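re the bet — no i am not wrong, look at it urself. input seq straight from the record:
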Amino acid sequence: MRNGLKVGLTAFFLLVTGYYLYPSIQNYFIKENMEEMSAQERAEYKRENFERIQNVEERSLKLGLDLLGGMHVTMEVQTDRLIQELATNTDSTFNSVLNAAQQRSASGGGSLIEAFVAEFEQRDPNARLSRYFRSNAENLTRRSTNEKVVEYLNKQADDATERAIDIIRDRVNRYGVTEPSIQRQGDRRIVVELPGVDDEERVRELLKNTARLEFRLTANSQKLKSSLQSIIQYYEGADSLNAPDTTAPADTSATPGQETDPLVSGTQQQQQQQGGGRQQDTSFDVGEVLGQGGGGG
């Protein structure tokens, strides 16, 4: 009886193990088969069996770095550059404090922001960090306390770290790594584990590329629309002042067949009055021509 129970349990666990291992075995033989194909045959095979291959890969066991190999990368947000870019005003004192804070932080003096504030207050306990940092969105003004500025800097650094994680995850997903691990370590570090990666140089370049998002304040849409309307009305008014007066009575003294353009009409009348005599000079001042109108002298 006991032997039968042991055999039954053993058989049960073997069946369960085989059930979970079967997709991985399938995936192994599919990849082995595809490696023997030419590039054209492989592309055709993937197209015809796309759903099956995808289903097998999803159900396969995911091996970690210890079994499958791959890359382990530790990245860190550049807080010093973030502080420089957040500063609305800098001077030699600011740069000197930031350099000293970098050295203090590197030697185990806490985070860079903490070291920056400590170094700044050590040099001048009564000075305010708000002389360098302003933000309308965060209500950070000239009168803001150092604690308010520190809170602002930490918040911006946290947001920058989260954005970096999102960017890294998006890049890794586009690369097609199976089951990547992207985790935050401490305040500013990001640990990336990529199982099965064989092109380490390409992934390294992919992760190193700088990603920058810049946000700029734009004009209020209602004020912008109102300003554009005022500009349009101004130029429409200027055009109406420069337009010819179409309400003035037309000059009807010209004989039929004559040109109504005063420049041309004045020239033609001069020639007609001279008859068959010698050619007269028909180049005269525009004011004189316009003064003659269309009538004869």
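see?? Residues 254-297 have pLDDT under 50 and may be disordered. told u. also The chain is about 60% helix and 5% strand. so pay up
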